[in-house]
Amino acid sequence: MTKPQKVRPYLTTRSLLPENQETPIQFINNDSMEHQLFFRRNHFTYPTLSYSNYWLPINGLVSAPLLLSMQDILQYPSKTVEVVLECSGDKRNLFEPKIYGEQWEKGAISQGKWKGVPLRTLLELSGIGEEAKEVVVEGYDYGLRTDLDEVYTYTRSLPIAKALHQDTIIAYEYNNQPIPFKHGYPLRLIVPQWYAMASVKWIKQISVINTTFTGPFQTIDYMYYPNKDNDQNAFPVTAININSTIQKPLDMEKINTGVHLIKGIAWTGKGVITKVEISIDDGYTWSNAALPGKNVGYGWVSWSFEWDISEKGEYTIKSRATDSFGQIQPKLPFWNKKGYGYNAIDKIKVKVE
Q1: pTM
Q2: Is-contact 112 68, C-beta < 8 A?
């Protein structure tokens, strides 16, 4: 008798050049994701890099510029942080009216354990100047921006306070293995609690400046534009908005009467998740979902709710998260021209037969 073949979930492809793929979020059953199912977000094709002659320069407003080999970096005290990385365009597909750009559904989010050296350690070694305002991190990935008709590397900056945060790290391992190439090998910035555009991959160099960085991935992209017809009142995308996603059952699924486990994840960019509520009547009434006892750090929390349903019909199930700063998921998302930061109450429909 032949053994049944194990069927595995795959990433959901949004584009191939550059490669942009979603995590099949409904199949994620634990809080640390294997890298094969980690979402992929790229602006350009993958860079070509050699680990053997890899050096990291740290320059700019520093008294002792550094040129670090991988061996140097591995000698510094390391730390491991479990971090949720969410693309700021996650759930863009759900905005009304619709927004141009990658039509991410609910899977531009993943998490796992990243190990590396605090960026602060390297900045302090380089003698960061008192007048320092921002830290610019440049990646090796580059390409033509059609809106500007010029070639750019993917480069972002962090305000000095965020760069010096104890858990902002230059990572070299993911889940106890070297970071996979497609996720930033050999070195990747990890910025907890900010959307993942800040966590620059394939780091080429780090520069300290005393001005405001104005590269296109800082001042054109990853800005909230509240007005459809102009760029007024724009402000930068930074911390992750409080959010939740229902993983099970699936949207538009048919289920039988009986006991069903509604489950999902919730996360926030400020504090920790303190409550998740579930509604099975389209938001008319709400009940508390079960949360794990321990809720610390920068990861999502997995929640569940037991639903005993005896009446057939169509149901709209909703999830709503609250965090330790009193932030609650809104009924409606903050609409913005580029479609960032969607975090309205999650909802699915099911038919009970």
Answers
A1: 0.96
A2: no
